[in-house]
Design goal:
Shape: globular
CATH architecture of the largest domain: 3-Layer(aba) Sandwich
CATH class of the largest domain: Alpha Beta
CATH superfamily of the largest domain: Aspartate/ornithine carbamoyltransferase
Largest sheet: 5 strands, parallel
Bound molecules: N-carbamoyl-L-aspartate
Strand order of the largest sheet: 8-7-6-9-10
CATH topology of the largest domain: Rossmann fold
Helix content: 25-40%
Structural class: alpha/beta
Strand content: 15-25%
Number of strands: 14
Amino acid sequence: MISAYPHLIDLNDYPVTWWNGLLTQAEDIIKNPALYADSCKGKIMGTLFYEPSTRTQMSFQTAMLRLGGTIIGFDNPQTSSVAKGENLKDTTKIISGYSDVLVIRHPTVGAAKAAALTAECPVINAGDGGHLHPTQTLTDLLTLKAEKKTLSGLTIGVCGDLLNGRTVHSLCKAMSCYADNHFIMISTKELKMPSYIKDTIRAHGGTFEETQSLEEALPKLDVLYMTRIQRERFASPEEYETQKDTYILTTQKMKLAKPDMIVLHPLPRVDEIAVAVDDDPRALYFKQARYGMYVRMSLILTMLQSPAKTQLLYGHTHNGIFCKNPKCITNHESYLPKSFIGEETTLTCEYCDERLLLEH
Ligand code: NCD
């Protein structure tokens, strides 16, 4: 299915040259903000935030305001007709008809792609459940480029909730497209990186190792990317209790790290980085959040100027076959075409990337 608009659902839908162009433009915006002050004059950005957000939502909003545009939207679906039972399709269709670009965050995996299917303007994925978060990754790429001066040859530690943390999924998929990056995945065995992300890293020629020890990994790292344990994505509070507080970065542990290692975090922090670490010059997570505003300015501009059409679905529906992932949007919005790619016995859901193994 080809949409008449450009959408950003997954960074890997675009070539690396496109990401690099966005970063270069963001660097120019940082240097010459006045040149861009009116570039979105008369344009409206809609923001549909079905899930809590501070940085992503407000950096998108300030990005549009700094480009001279205006904003509409909700940050609590319970104050919209969603509370009356309106489905994603209808809300998207209406608000995209009012807007020039639509930013959507949703707790269900694949929701941004589902929204883009019927949207009447470009859609930007601002986080779909525990799946992907491409604009956080653009933020991370700009931070790495500005602070490490390279996007290649880095040893990157990702630590915390690698199962449910959408930021690390998008980050590893993207960074594996640059040469010679090595990932050290630090998590408990319950919260390991999903296999579809590891498959993508391998397919791009990236390398990785998995460990449970932050202390062992620290001396090897050029970048440490900390994440919080995603309490809201656990099946029960008891399961969360067994996982929380496993990894806490302290000033003591920072002594094990290289003098030029940088610490990033998409934020919000719960307690996985002790507040005292903030004073370490290697702690760059607050600076990182500011880079996010500039890269989103660059993205909004690009989406509004692009004439591209986006192919959203490549595969096929199969009689009687549906995605087995209860968190997939196709199991919440029943009208969606249940589209799969791949072989007859191994199908991959095009919304959530879950693989189905079918027995004959
Ligand atoms: C992250 C998110 O929402 O996925 N935050 C963000 O967008 N900066 C990380 C998180 O919630 O842990």
